[in-house]
């Protein structure tokens, strides 16, 4: 700060008092309202999907009417998105590290089939079948992580490969044959645990929440805590943001990456357990597009595909947006093609918004 | 289920034909004719005869079983069988590449379930110009004479049978039926519209354009939705249509896995006793579901027969150039369809689930 000239100062210093007293400082630009919005969104990345979800709910309540907004339908939407939601949580972990996991859906179906074959066909105790299924998920994730970290292959290529590998092994194992719901009930009902439900109010009016829906919220809750409140979680973001900087600051980046892929595989296997409850039967042919749907939910949820940025809660809203739009369009009586059309535009708009937010000026 | 009968032809290599117990006299006559022709011809050729089987996908047990049937028949006939499959329904490129490979391999015959009834015509033309016998299995080309012959289920008739059964079971209540239609996918392939429209015609509904799904205006139809032919899709589609109208009491399904999914949805809504579910396929899990009352009636088809007849036709063609013939009055050879139900109605021939369990295909 410029000193005020004192009375005892030299004559020529008197004019100092009239000079500009400010030293170097940032120029204060006037922000347009749009820039302010950009700022707010930059610091709260989950706001976009939340706003879109609320807008979609209001819009479809007007278009599709009472059938859309009654609690039963809202509960149903949550049931329908619960599996993709959990998978999106797994996918988010990988995407935050600037990777992508194309195999996550196939790994889930693989794990569900293994749980079924062990628990129903071979008659192992359900708990052991489930544990082995989860073990398979973690192992599958570890395989991805191994190729990404040790052989330094791009995640896109690795998971493109394991996607095919998992699917083909799965079909060879099963002959594409499903395990029937009634056989699961008879021999391994624990596999359907997440199909149980709690009714809030009385159906058909009241909402029905399955354990699978509660599991989805729990998975997001736990992952939010881990990513935001633990050192490991901050390392995951650091690795995704700038892997070299993370390495230089002492983070064991390979170990972090490997653990991320293993956790993603484990979460996918938990989704597998939940999917048995959701569908009833175990089919090697279901969830054929689950990997792409999970990426859709992540992207609409505002997680940056470039890594290091985005809240894990975003994909939860992303999945709910997709479910809401599909349900709303259906109840409005529109052809199935319009659902696909709308989801396509949602993805593009979501990424466009993400790019715009990234360009935020200081 | 089937037993190979070996017929020794002097000092020539033994030639075997795979008999199917389900064969009607017509089929037997055709095959006996073929065997007689062979006996006079040169059975030694069979040894270096190559046949190709190109199926739509390996995600449908129907095609997996068809391949197994063809492999068994080829082995019995002493010919080499090469098998190919697309990755998804509609995967034309893989099938084109497979046909080209078969031409290059100098195959005598190609058995193909075309993923696209029209798009494969040019490459099929090339194969026929190269002197290869091309037989469409399960799905006809458009026009049917793109191939030398078609061995298929009459899918329209398969739909018609379950439609007639549903209408007869409801009796007078058929006039007030609430019908949900669970179709295959958004591409509306021939199998999809033939079964759907066959069902509606059998039920007594004006089907308008017989190649279009969902153009009907009959108020008894609640709606159409797509299932991808698996449990997961069947469950979601049924939930969706129940949201449109919870009073649904007739459910048409494209195949038995979709039917199983629909039942799970109805059961979750507590409406499983309200609705009749009808389906098409005749897979063993589906027949089991008829026995347990999940599915009211299903139209059984015979993929093993299609495959073994196809192999026999190729063997015969390789021996003496005889081309297979169509069923009288049809532009394809009808491999038959059989209604399976434990609640037979007067005037519609059917077999019980117990009898059907001996005939089902996997």
How are strands sequenced across the largest beta sheet of chain B? 4-3-5-6-7-13
What's the CATH topology label of the largest domain in chain B? Rossmann fold
Specify the CATH architecture of the largest domain in chain B.
Answer: 3-Layer(aba) Sandwich
Strand arrangement, largest sheet of chain A?
1-2
Mean pLDDT of chain B: 86
Give the total of domains of chain A. 1
| Overall geometric form of chain A | globular
Counted beta strands of chain B: 14
**Residue-averaged pLDDT of chain A, rounded?**
89
CATH architecture of chain A: Orthogonal Bundle
Fraction in helix of chain A: 55-70%
What is the highest CATH level, the class of chain A?
A: Mainly Alpha
CATH topology name of chain A, in short, is ABC transporter involved in vitamin B12 uptake, BtuC
pLDDT < 50 stretches of chain A: none
Report the top-level CATH class of the largest domain in chain B: Alpha Beta
Low-confidence stretches of chain B: 1-46
Rg of chain A, alpha carbons: 26 Å
Task: Tell me the span between the first and last alpha carbons of chain B.
Answer: 11 Å
């Amino acid at each position: 700060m410029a000193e005020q000239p004192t009375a005892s100062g030299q004559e020529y210093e008197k004019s100092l008092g009239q000079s500009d007293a400010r030293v170097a400082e940032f120029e204060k630009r006037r922000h347009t309202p749009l820039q302010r919005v950009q700022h707010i969104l930059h610091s709260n990345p989950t706001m976009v999907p939340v706003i879109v979800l609320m807008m979609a709910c209001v819009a479809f309540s007007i278009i599709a009417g009472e059938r859309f907004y009654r609690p039963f339908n809202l509960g149903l939407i949550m049931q329908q998105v619960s599996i993709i939601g959990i998978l999106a949580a797994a996918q988010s972990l990988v995407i935050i590290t600037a990777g992508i996991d194309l195999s996550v859906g196939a790994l889930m179906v693989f794990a569900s089939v293994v749980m079924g074959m062990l628990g129903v066909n071979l008659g192992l105790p359900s708990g052991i079948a489930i544990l082995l299924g989860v073990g398979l998920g973690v192992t599958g994730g570890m395989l991805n992580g191994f190729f990404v970290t040790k052989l330094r292959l791009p995640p896109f290529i690795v998971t493109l490969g394991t996607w095919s590998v998992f699917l083909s092994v799965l079909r060879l194992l099963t002959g594409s044959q499903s395990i029937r719901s009634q056989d699961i009930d008879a021999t391994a009902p624990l596999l359907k645990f997440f199909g149980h439900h709690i009714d809030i109010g009385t159906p058909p009016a009241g909402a029905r929440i399955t354990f699978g829906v509660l599991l989805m919220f729990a998975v997001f809750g736990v992952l939010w805590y881990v990513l935001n409140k633990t050192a490991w979680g901050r390392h995951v973001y650091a690795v995704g943001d700038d892997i070299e900087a993370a390495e230089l600051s002492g983070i064991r980046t390979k170990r972090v990456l490997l653990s991320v892929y293993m956790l993603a595989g484990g979460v996918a296997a938990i989704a597998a357990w939940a999917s048995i409850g959701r569908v009833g039967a175990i089919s090697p042919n279901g969830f054929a597009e689950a990997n792409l749907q999970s990426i859709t939910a992540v992207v609409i949820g505002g997680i940056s595909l470039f890594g290091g940025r985005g809240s894990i809660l975003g994909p939860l809203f992303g999945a709910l947006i997709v479910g809401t739009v599909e349900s709303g369009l259906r109840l409005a009586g529109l052809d199935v093609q319009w659902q696909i059309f709308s989801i396509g535009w949602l993805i593009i708009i979501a990424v466009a918004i993400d790019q715009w937010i990234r360009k935020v000026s200081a | 289920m089937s037993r190979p009968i070996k017929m020794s032809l002097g000092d020539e290599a033994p030639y075997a034909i795979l008999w199917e117990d389900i064969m009607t006299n017509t089929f037997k006559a055709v095959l006996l004719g073929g065997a007689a022709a062979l006996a006079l011809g040169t059975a030694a050729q069979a040894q270096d005869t190559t046949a190709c089987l190109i199926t739509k996908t390996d995600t449908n047990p129907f095609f997996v079983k068809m391949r197994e049937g063809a492999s068994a028949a080829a082995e019995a006939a002493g010919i080499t069988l090469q098998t190919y499959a697309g990755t998804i329904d509609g995967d034309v490129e893989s099938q084109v590449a497979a046909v080209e490979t078969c031409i290059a391999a100098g195959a005598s015959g190609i058995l193909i379930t075309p993923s696209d009834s029209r798009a494969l015509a040019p490459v099929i033309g090339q194969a026929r110009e190269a002197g290869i016998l091309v037989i469409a299995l399960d799905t006809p080309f458009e026009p049917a004479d793109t191939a030398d012959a078609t061995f298929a289920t009459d899918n329209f008739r398969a739909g018609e049978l379950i439609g007639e059964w549903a209408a007869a079971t409801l009796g007078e209540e058929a006039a007030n039926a609430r019908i949900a239609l669970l179709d295959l996918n958004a591409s509306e392939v021939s199998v999809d519209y033939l079964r759907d429209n066959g069902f509606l015609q059998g039920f007594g509904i004006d089907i308008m354009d017989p190649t279009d799904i969902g153009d009907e205006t009959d108020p008894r139809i609640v709606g159409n939705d797509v299932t991808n032919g698996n449990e997961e899709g069947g469950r979601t589609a049924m939930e969706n249509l129940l949201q449109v109208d919870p009073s649904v009491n007739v459910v048409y399904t494209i195949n038995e896995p979709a039917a199983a999914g629909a039942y799970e949805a109805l059961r979750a809504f507590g409406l499983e006793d309200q609705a009749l579910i009808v389906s098409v396929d005749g897979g063993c899990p589906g027949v089991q579901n008829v026995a347990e009352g999940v599915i009211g009636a299903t139209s059984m088809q015979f993929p093993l027969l299609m495959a073994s007849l196809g192999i026999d036709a190729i063997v015969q063609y390789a021996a003496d150039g005889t081309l297979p013939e169509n069923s009288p009055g049809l532009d394809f050879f009808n491999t038959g369809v059989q209604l399976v139900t434990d609640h037979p109605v007067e005037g519609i021939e059917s077999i019980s689930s117990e009898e059907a369990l001996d005939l089902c295909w996997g």
